[in-house]
UniProtKB/TrEMBL annotation:
Keywords: Cell membrane, Membrane, Transmembrane, Transmembrane helix. It is found in: Cell membrane. The chain crosses the membrane at residues 48-70, 77-100, 106-126. The lineage of its organism: Bacteria, Pseudomonadati, Pseudomonadota, Alphaproteobacteria, Hyphomicrobiales. InterPro entries: DoxX, DoxX-like_oxidoreductase. Belongs to the DoxX family. PANTHER family: BLL4328 PROTEIN, OXIDOREDUCTASE CATD-RELATED. The keyword Transmembrane applies. This is DoxX family protein. It is a multi-pass membrane protein. It comes from the Bacteria.
């Protein structure tokens, strides 16, 4: 017998909640880069036709699609790829361990998005599976 705090029958609801909360947190990255809200000084001079500008567009569009649960699997796959590029392209060369190279968030987002690309959106989504 397995001890479960939340019964397995609630998995789709919890999965949907994880998707929504992750999307809301991730959307901040896109809005900070593209609209300056919330304000992050590092993104003050980001232009749309730059690497960070392109990342902001991917984060905004992908985050919104994830939030509403539309095209969840392909959107999550693209976001996982973006986060893998962010980790290996900008963090990993600083140090081996994510806690030292400040890449923990990119790595975590990468694997959460990879999960949604395989498992789907869960409940509360426009996608019908």
């Amino acid at each position: 017998m397995t001890l479960r705090i939340i019964p397995a029958r609630f998995l789709p609801q919890v999965q949907g909640l994880l998707r929504i909360v992750t999307a809301l947190l991730f959307l901040q990255h896109g809005t900070a880069k593209l609209f300056g809200f919330p304000h992050v000084a590092m993104f003050d001079k980001v232009t749309l036709l730059s690497l960070l500008g392109a990342a902001g567009v991917i984060e905004l569009v992908g985050g919104f699609l994830l939030l509403i649960g539309l095209f969840t699997r392909p959107a999550a796959f693209i976001l996982a790829g973006e986060m893998a590029v962010a980790y290996f392209g900008f963090h990993a060369f600083e140090a081996f361990w994510p806690i030292l190279n400040k890449g923990e968030l990119a790595a975590l987002y990468c694997f959460v998005f990879l999960f949604f690309s395989v498992a789907g959106p869960g409940k509360f989504a426009l996608d019908k599976e």
